[in-house]
Specification:
With 462 residues, the protein is of the alpha/beta class. The protein is built from 17 helices and 16 strands.
Length: 462
């Protein structure tokens, strides 16, 4: 079931703590055929409970603080990229070539928000860049080809396209079978490093991740959601991006609250990275599996150089199966795994009311990091945690029905995001943004700092 108990169990948590969670249930939040609202509240609830557990450990509290999960806050935060306004301007979520297309035998969805992905899509289809109407050209090219042919040709060119599948078709696919065989959250121990000594906390709000240093090597969207959550909870989060791959400005504005942002070329600035790693507590990566290994960033290599580290990894399809090395995004995972087919109408594919696979997986990853830190404080050992969007999708589509875990109380229907929005000034403008849904009694309710311009901070710890 898509409930907090299942998520908490997947994180290795004590099920007796689930009674500390109260859910405010609101009809109209994240309405869909699939139990999206239940998945969203479960992910946020598990993350909040992990934060409360670590807070109790570090602040020497008599018991784990109470957690309150509000469907309104969860629904608003799961659409945070849609709620963002920068000086009153709403961002564009998807580029013109990121959409569904009819093919000769079905449907395919492409993702071309980044310029390099757009260029690879056009190359795969034999279309010259900068000539004519690209939407009409792509539409014409895809109409004459099978969805499977398009999927393979675009991926071979380094682009992103996925053929529409039903849940039954995905279950029969080798990647679907490989994903279903894995746990929702993969957790492992890399060595026998001594137990972590976390300094005690005092003052309010209680920040369970205070004093911890997190290297953030993630992009769109699950990874940045995870590290944004760790920043909320007090961690010093330093996001590092390659200087030749600028982030989309609005995505940065949405997901980099609480963080600092710097550029670093891992091929030429290794000494800088090693100096940062030498003082890091957590490294979070979100590139396709294996992409960073050549820089010495495999979990084993990182833990060898920095014993006691927590390594957290998120990917679209997982590290296993025939698609283990492929890139992917939430919208594409929805299409492959049968979510889009389930949510469609009148023969056309549909979509979830939010990028729930991204957001849900991100909160699960943050929760896994927090639980790893708690476990380390007792048992030691460098830790590895992994999540994958496709595995979260398998949880969603395979659910036996709605459920909550913990306690539940009825709330007023969800009629809009306004009660769960905040505004703040920043160096990139006046920002309207979704408030964090993660919290516990005595914990933080907003980020300590807004995002600044992308890549303008120094690559050093505060």
């Amino acid at each position: 079931m898509t409930d907090i108990s299942f998520a908490w169990s997947a994180l290795g948590g004590d099920l007796g703590l689930v009674d500390h969670v109260t859910t405010v249930a609101r009809e109209g939040a994240l309405t869909a055929r699939l139990p999206v609202r239940d998945l969203a509240r479960a992910c946020v609830g598990a993350c909040s409970l992990a934060a409360a557990e670590l807070a109790a450990r570090r602040a020497a509290l008599a018991e784990v603080p109470a957690v309150r999960v509000d469907d309104g806050a969860v629904a608003t935060a799961f659409g945070s990229e849609r709620q963002l306004l920068v000086d009153g301007r709403a961002p564009v979520s998807f580029a013109p070539l990121s959409r569904f297309w009819r093919t000769a035998d079905g449907w395919v969805r492409t993702h071309a928000n980044y310029p390099h992905h757009r260029a690879r899509l056009l190359t795969a289809l034999g279309l010259p860049a900068g000539e004519g109407d690209p939407v009409a050209s792509v539409e014409s090219a895809l109409a004459a080809r099978s969805a499977q042919d398009v999927e393979e040709a675009v991926y071979a060119a380094g682009g992103l396209a996925v053929a529409l599948r039903t849940p039954k078709e995905w279950a029969a696919h080798p990647q679907g079978a490989a994903v279903a065989a894995r746990p929702l959250v993969e957790r492992g121990r890399l060595d026998t490093a001594r137990a972590r000594v976390l300094p005690p906390l005092d003052g309010t709000p209680v920040l369970p991740a205070a004093g911890l240093r997190v290297l953030d090597l993630t992009r769109v969207l699950a990874g940045p959601v995870a590290t944004r959550t760790l920043a909320l909870l007090g961690a010093d989060v330093l996001r590092l991006d390659p200087p030749h791959l600028p982030e989309i400005a609005d995505q940065h504005a949405d997901t980099d609250f609480g963080k600092r942002s710097a550029t670093l070329d891992l091929a030429t600035d290794r000494a800088v990275f090693e100096s940062l790693l030498a003082e890091a507590d957590v490294v979070v990566t979100g590139y396709r599996p294996g992409a960073l290994d050549r820089f010495g960033l495999s979990p084993e290599a990182l833990a060898e150089r920095r014993p006691g580290l927590v390594v957290a990894q998120v990917s679209a399809w997982g590290r296993y199966g025939p698609w283990g090395g492929r890139r992917g995004f939430d919208s594409l995972v929805q299409v492959a795994t049968g979510v889009a087919a389930t949510e469609g109408t009148d023969g056309r594919p549909g979509a979830l009311p939010a990028q729930a696979l991204d957001h849900g997986t991100g909160y699960l990853l943050a929760a896994a990091v927090l639980r790893a830190l708690t476990e380390q404080s007792y048992e030691g050992g460098s830790r590895l945690v992994r999540t994958a969007l496709a595995r979260t999708a398998a949880w969603l589509t395979g659910s036996a029905g709605p459920g909550t875990g913990g306690r539940s109380q009825p709330g007023a229907p969800y009629e809009g995001p306004e009660p769960w929005l905040g505004e703040t000034d920043s160096r990139i403008g006046r920002l309207r943004h979704a408030l964090p849904p993660v919290g516990f009694a005595g914990g933080p309710t907003d980020w300590a700092r807004p995002p600044g311009p992308w890549g303008t901070d120094e690559a050093r710890w505060s």
